[in-house]
Structures are given as structure tokens and as C-alpha cells.
Amino acid sequence: MKIHKYDTVIVGAGGAGMRAAIESTKRSRTAVLTKLYPTRSHTGAAQGGMAAALANVEEDNWEWHTFDTIKGGDYLVDQDAAEILAKEAIDSVLDLEKMGLPFNRTPNGTIDQRRFGGHSRNHGEAPVRRSCYAADRTGHMILQTLYQNCVKEGVEFFNEFYVLDQLITEVDGVKRSAGVVAYELATGEIHIFQAKAVIYASGGCGKFFRVTSNAHTLTGDGQAAVYRRGLPLEDMEFFQFHPTGIWRMGILLTEGARGEGGILRNKDGERFMEKYAPVMKDLASRDVVSRSIYTEIREGRGCGPEGDHVYLDLTHLPPEQLDAKLPDITEFARTYLGIEPYTDPIPIQPTAHYAMGGIPTNVEGEVLADNTTVVPGLYAAGEVACVSVHGANRLGTNSLLDINVFGKRAGIAAAEYSAKHDYVELPENPAELVVEQVERLRNSTGTERVAEIRRELQDTMDANVMVFRTEQTIKTAVEKIGELRERYRNVAIQDKGKRFNTDLLEAIELGNLLDLAEVMAISALARKESRGGHYREDYPNRDDVNFMRHTMAYREVGDDGTETVRLDYKPVVQTRYQPMERKY
Amino acid sequence: MATPVMDKVEAESAASPYITVTFRVRRFNPEVSAEATWEDFQLEIDPKERVLDGLHKIKWDLDGTLTFRRSCAHGICGSDAMRINGRNRLACKTLIKDINPEKPITVEPIKGLTVLKDLVVDMEPFFQAYRDVMPFLVTTGNEPTRERLQSAEDRERFDDTTKCILCAACTSSCPVFWNDGQYFGPAAIVNAHRFIFDSRDEAGEQRLEILNDKDGVWRCRTTFNCTDACPRGIEVTKAIQEVKRALITRRF
């Protein structure tokens, strides 16, 4: 076991982690721990753009962007945070351009902008061109640009280091972050990173669904690590289902395709979004579009022999426009479906895409231990976190924005914190939990297989807590997850070695997914209303009287060792926007 | 506007799509043996699935010790470059039906980098070459308050080389790199190109000098392996030629 000491440790090297690292490395001795290589992170899969009211191509301002974000989030957004997001968006985009990001350009040479779902002129009048983009590779360009600047700044990376535990020491009755425990993939060695400040930027947890746009590696490791140490998770019932995933595969086809004029059609060729969202049509918010698609499918207007998908139609767009603006997604259709998007519509279905919930933080990125108390020295940013700027449903292009705005904020705040504070003493035997976990799996003689439990988990999540939910379906999921958690205790792996043991890590990742799936389902069961991405058929309306509040889920361990999820609630921060009915 | 015919796509279906294929995988685990060996696995797979799906079937259902890197599974993250039927490809972008499933499908690690276990190689020399070409925008003078202006034409000039995902398929397909790991390799040159031809950048001369080195662009023998290997369709050899030309003319 090795012990390292750094001022600041960042967990994850996607957009938020690297944006934080650029700031934090300038101000403090920083280590970035990533379970992949930095350029492998799923930020690179984001396509459509990054919202900012630059007003380069038409009138726009950050106040409209704030409003759209709050409305898009079905009023569960913390309005002070949304205002920061929209205001600081402009500098975030300009920062990236100055770092070298190759945005598409207008004829004047400024950054070009395009339409995106839910982004509107003057509080919903009409779609507005707010998304700054680089073809349909904006996430790729952001990831590359941030990595390039990490190279420039000399950021220190520990590649293929899996953070498996958060160390917390109680000092005078206050829980403080002492560091993290990491597992080195290449050697199987366990490392303690003692740090004055720790930033989680480890991304989402979409892999508990089968049809998902998420990478295999998005297994909620950061959320699970802090949750197991008694810290809460906020709004985990809110998960976004992106309307246009490749049928059955879930691979993302950007909303930018509809921003460029693409149309959704049912089996009769009807542009069905006109019925559900007369003004914004195909560019309504994602939760609205995904529900509309499933409504079409359920009412028998889905396409194909099983009627289980609809079409994204780009055939009316000029091939030159597709080549210039949507080169990657048209190539995905050719590669994976053998379809030529110039002439044929693309079969799509909603795909599990983004966790609105996560580790609760304030606007400085400081992690909360309850509704108000911060955990000194602990930060989170990006999809792993819940600020909450996305509320019940995130707008497209607001996540690339989130990682830049709050990644930067967390990086600065953490480095400033580590400059002013000393190390917190490590707990006694800091690696205990991880050693025990790794040894138990490596020596297990159980009979359960990781892949089988994961398959069953994904099946129950897809069937029961996806776009439409009821008390009955959620209860089915809760029960199934409980059974799978029991079986997981009896899981065994085949690779008993130390070197690059991905068999072991997949087992650990499955444990994380199971914990988070349980939190999600239990949070969803208790929220007896429909709001944003959480739609209850048995409670189809939003209920501001009882549920205009954030869910806070805590892990409780009884005297007999039984684990339960305890729910509490936190008020929503409202500044100037009164909740209204959401129409697009 | 013509509405497309909506049921063209799925004429086929019905009958089980599964076929039996053999994956012949290069195995190596120094914890077990100093020798690398071939191992065959039979699996049932839909030919429309990816080679990566096949590897997952092996790992998840047959042999958990099989080790490879992967993440996004759709050709964006660059984790799973490997040698499939003797050619460098991304396992997640190669469909079974496209590589003759009648015969055993061979899967090996990419060449020229040290194999650490099964399909996992040491990527560090590859990333070191990348870092050595100053892969970041260099500018002088005061920063503008707004964005730097760039014409759409100037932006287009280096578009092709911005697509690189650092998967190493090109570099590890290069015979010069196989023989001499000191050569920067195509990927590093591609990433230098991306900045040399960016109108906003001011360090082109420095990068050209780096690549003028004995291990730089002049080692390229234009075999076009890199261009064939690139899963992003970058015209890698062309980019290298443009860098060579810039070195001669000092115009870029």
C-alpha cells in the first residue's frame, strides 16, 4: 500500500475533472485520478453543443437562458444556480475558444450557434440559436481541448486508477474529507491519496439501464463512494431519456439533428410532435419528446414489425448540410444500421442518457452532508453532482456547459481551500474497506455471475423505471433490486490475478450500480407526482404543494447490519421565477 | 415535401439472426506464463453485432480473465483499437458481418507497443510522442475580450485532423514505428498538423522544428497503412505530407 500526499485530488478526467484540474494545478499541487485515460471519458461522446447566450447570430441574453433552464427542469431547478450557469456560460465558451477549441464559425468569423431543444427566445416565443458547436463533435472537441490544456499546464494524471472509497474523518463533530483510496489497475496495488481537498468529477451512472447512450464505464463510482460513507444523494429519481438513441443499441443521435431540421415520424409518416408541442415541435424538451415517442408506440403507431420505434427523418435535408453539420451521427447510422441517412429515415427510440441527480453541492461545488452543512474539503462537479441546475430535466447543451462552469468553480474553490487548510488526519486503517472488498471478491467461492446480475438489473430498470412509471412497476423494480443485491453477496469472479484485473473491477462497478439503482427506485416510489424526467402514470400531474422539493437519500445501517434508504427533502431555491404550467 | 416510405428498413427479420463464429484471440498474461498463445472461443452472435460484443460475450459468459480496454462502444473514446484479422480497427466499430465470419476471426493487440496483458498494451510511449509535439494552442499578446475570429475557410483548413481520438490505430499500423519506437508516429504528427494549420496558432515553426528531428516526419515512407487504419477517416498520410511540405516551404 502506497500513501501519496497532494493538496488537491480530482477524481475523474472528463470535462468537469479536467476543467477543474486546469484551475487547481495553477493554484495547488494536484493529482487527477482516472479509471480510464483522460481522452477516453464520455464527455467525448457529447455531440450537439454548449449553450451560451453569445447572441452571435440572433438576439439572445442570459436571462432568457436562465428561464429556459428553469422551465426545462420543470421548476425543480435551484434558480440561483441556474442564473450562475447562464451568466457564466458566455465566459466559459470564450475560455474554451481561447484554449483552442475549433468551434464552427459564422461568415463573420465569430462562433456559430444553432437551435436546440427547449432553448427559446423571450421566454418560449420561438426556438433560438444558442448552442455553440463544432459539427456534431462538440464534446470530443471539448475533451481534446481540455486535455491539450492539461498537457500545457503540466497536470499530473494517474491513469487507470479506480477510486473505490472516500475517506472521512470527524474532527470536533464535523465530517471532513481526508482523501481517497484508489486501486491501480495495472498492478492491483491499493493507494491512499491523502488530500486537503477532493473533487469528484467521475460522471454518471447510466449503465444500470440496458438501452443507454452511456459508456460501459459509467457506473456511478463517485456517487456510490460518498453514499456509502453516509453522505446523501439528491434527486436520483430524475433520469433523462434522450429521445433519439439508435434503435435497440441506444447510441446517441444528437438533438442537433432536429436543430438542423430533422423530423420525428411515426409509421404513418406523420410528424407527430406537432400534436404534443405545437410551438417547439421536435425541439420540445427531451422528457416531453421521449414521452411523445412512447405514446405513439403504445398507441400502435410505432414502426417496424414490432412497432417498437419511430423514425428520425433527415432525408429532406441537403446531403451537404448533413456532411458539414452532422457527419458523425450519419456515419453511426451507416456503420451500425447499414442505413443511408440521405435517403432513408433512421429508426430510433429513447435511450437512458443523463442523471440529473447526484452528489448535492452548493454553487461553489462544496458537497453537502445534509440540507445545509458542507463537508469541508469535499467538492463535486459535472454529472456526478447535483447543484441543481438541471432540476427534473436537463436541457440539451446544458451539460457541456455545466461541466465547464462548475468544473472551473470547483477547481478554484478546492485549490483555494487547500491553500488555507492543513491535512486532516487519515482514519485508522484507511484502506480497510477497499482491502476487504477486493479480497472478498478475489477469494469468493460464490456461484453468481456478474454479467447475469447486471443483465437482470438492466432488464428490470428498462422495464420498470424508464420513461413511464407507476407504483406497481417501481415496486417490482425495488423488489428485484433487493433480490439482486442479495445475490450479489454470492458473486464470484474468474480472474484472481493482480494484473489488469478488469473482471474484479466490473464486479465492483456492479455493486455501485446496484446501490444507486436502489436509491433511484426508492426515490421514484416516494415521489407521487410527475415532473420532468420522472413520469408517474398513477400521478400524471406535477404537485407543487407536496413535491416542489429535492429528494435527499441517505444510506442507513441498522444495528443488525441491514441497509436501508432513508429519504429526506430539501427546499428548492426560488428567486424570480414562479412555477407555471410547462408547455412547448 | 415527400414523406419517405416508412417500412423499407426492416424487410428482413423473423428467423434467428444468430450464427456461430470462432474468435481466435491472442492471450498473454505474464502472471501465468511468459509465452503468448492463441485461444479459440466459439460463440453465437448476430452478425450485425460488433467485434466488441463478441469479446464481451467471451468475457461475461465464457472466460472472465480475457482482458481488453473499452468504454464508449461506438468509436468515440478510442479505447479499443486492436488488430482484427490482421488489420488495425476499433472493436466497437467493426461488425461481425463485415469481416468474413465464416473463418475464425483473429484478434490481437496492436503492434509496436509492449503487451501488458491479452489485448492491453502500454500506451505511455504513444502519449509521450503526442505530448512532445506541443499539442495545444500557443498565442502571444493580450487575449481578446471576445473570441478570436477565424473564417470558416481557415477553420476548415485543419478540420480533418481535429477528428483524432488518440486510439493509436494509425501509429501501431506503421512499419517504421514497428521497427523503431523512437519515431513520433502518425498520430503525433496529425496532432501537430491540427495546430500548425490553425490560423490562430503562433507556434507552427517550433512544432515544425520538433518534427524536423531525425525521428520526425522524414521517417514516414508513405505506406498509407495509417490512412487505412484510421477509424475516423482522417487522411493521415496526406496530413503528414502537408507537414513535410510546410517544412520545405515554411508556408502553412
Automatic annotation (TrEMBL), chain A:
<keyword id="KW-0249">Electron transport</keyword>
<dbReference type="InterPro" id="IPR036188">
    <property type="entry name" value="FAD/NAD-bd_sf"/>
</dbReference>
<dbReference type="GO" id="GO:0009055">
    <property type="term" value="F:electron transfer activity"/>
</dbReference>
<dbReference type="InterPro" id="IPR015939">
    <property type="entry name" value="Fum_Rdtase/Succ_DH_flav-like_C"/>
</dbReference>
<dbReference type="GO" id="GO:0050660">
    <property type="term" value="F:flavin adenine dinucleotide binding"/>
</dbReference>
<dbReference type="InterPro" id="IPR027477">
    <property type="entry name" value="Succ_DH/fumarate_Rdtase_cat_sf"/>
</dbReference>
<feature type="binding site">
    <location>
        <position position="353"/>
    </location>
    <ligand>
        <name>substrate</name>
    </ligand>
</feature>
<keyword id="KW-0274">FAD</keyword>
<dbReference type="Pfam" id="PF00890">
    <property type="entry name" value="FAD_binding_2"/>
</dbReference>
<dbReference type="GO" id="GO:0008177">
    <property type="term" value="F:succinate dehydrogenase (quinone) activity"/>
</dbReference>
<keyword id="KW-0285">Flavoprotein</keyword>
<dbReference type="Pfam" id="PF02910">
    <property type="entry name" value="Succ_DH_flav_C"/>
</dbReference>
<dbReference type="InterPro" id="IPR037099">
    <property type="entry name" value="Fum_R/Succ_DH_flav-like_C_sf"/>
</dbReference>
<keyword id="KW-0560">Oxidoreductase</keyword>
<dbReference type="GO" id="GO:0005886">
    <property type="term" value="C:plasma membrane"/>
</dbReference>
<dbReference type="InterPro" id="IPR014006">
    <property type="entry name" value="Succ_Dhase_FrdA_Gneg"/>
</dbReference>
<dbReference type="GO" id="GO:0022900">
    <property type="term" value="P:electron transport chain"/>
</dbReference>
<feature type="domain" description="FAD-dependent oxidoreductase 2 FAD-binding">
    <location>
        <begin position="7"/>
        <end position="400"/>
    </location>
</feature>
<feature type="binding site">
    <location>
        <begin position="12"/>
        <end position="17"/>
    </location>
    <ligand>
        <name>FAD</name>
    </ligand>
</feature>
<dbReference type="GO" id="GO:0009061">
    <property type="term" value="P:anaerobic respiration"/>
</dbReference>
<dbReference type="InterPro" id="IPR003953">
    <property type="entry name" value="FAD-dep_OxRdtase_2_FAD-bd"/>
</dbReference>
<keyword id="KW-0472">Membrane</keyword>
TrEMBL record, chain B:
<feature type="domain" description="2Fe-2S ferredoxin-type">
    <location>
        <begin position="19"/>
        <end position="113"/>
    </location>
</feature>
<dbReference type="GO" id="GO:0051538">
    <property type="term" value="F:3 iron, 4 sulfur cluster binding"/>
</dbReference>
<dbReference type="InterPro" id="IPR017896">
    <property type="entry name" value="4Fe4S_Fe-S-bd"/>
</dbReference>
<dbReference type="InterPro" id="IPR025192">
    <property type="entry name" value="Succ_DH/fum_Rdtase_N"/>
</dbReference>
<dbReference type="GO" id="GO:0051539">
    <property type="term" value="F:4 iron, 4 sulfur cluster binding"/>
</dbReference>
<comment type="similarity">
    <text>Belongs to the succinate dehydrogenase/fumarate reductase iron-sulfur protein family.</text>
</comment>
<keyword id="KW-0004">4Fe-4S</keyword>
<dbReference type="InterPro" id="IPR050573">
    <property type="entry name" value="SDH/FRD_Iron-Sulfur"/>
</dbReference>
<dbReference type="InterPro" id="IPR009051">
    <property type="entry name" value="Helical_ferredxn"/>
</dbReference>
<dbReference type="GO" id="GO:0046872">
    <property type="term" value="F:metal ion binding"/>
</dbReference>
<dbReference type="GO" id="GO:0022904">
    <property type="term" value="P:respiratory electron transport chain"/>
</dbReference>
<dbReference type="InterPro" id="IPR012675">
    <property type="entry name" value="Beta-grasp_dom_sf"/>
</dbReference>
<keyword id="KW-0408">Iron</keyword>
<keyword id="KW-0001">2Fe-2S</keyword>
<dbReference type="InterPro" id="IPR017900">
    <property type="entry name" value="4Fe4S_Fe_S_CS"/>
</dbReference>
<dbReference type="InterPro" id="IPR001041">
    <property type="entry name" value="2Fe-2S_ferredoxin-type"/>
</dbReference>
<keyword id="KW-0560">Oxidoreductase</keyword>
<dbReference type="Pfam" id="PF13085">
    <property type="entry name" value="Fer2_3"/>
</dbReference>
<dbReference type="InterPro" id="IPR036010">
    <property type="entry name" value="2Fe-2S_ferredoxin-like_sf"/>
</dbReference>
<dbReference type="GO" id="GO:0006099">
    <property type="term" value="P:tricarboxylic acid cycle"/>
</dbReference>
<comment type="pathway">
    <text>Carbohydrate metabolism; tricarboxylic acid cycle.</text>
</comment>
<dbReference type="Pfam" id="PF13183">
    <property type="entry name" value="Fer4_8"/>
</dbReference>
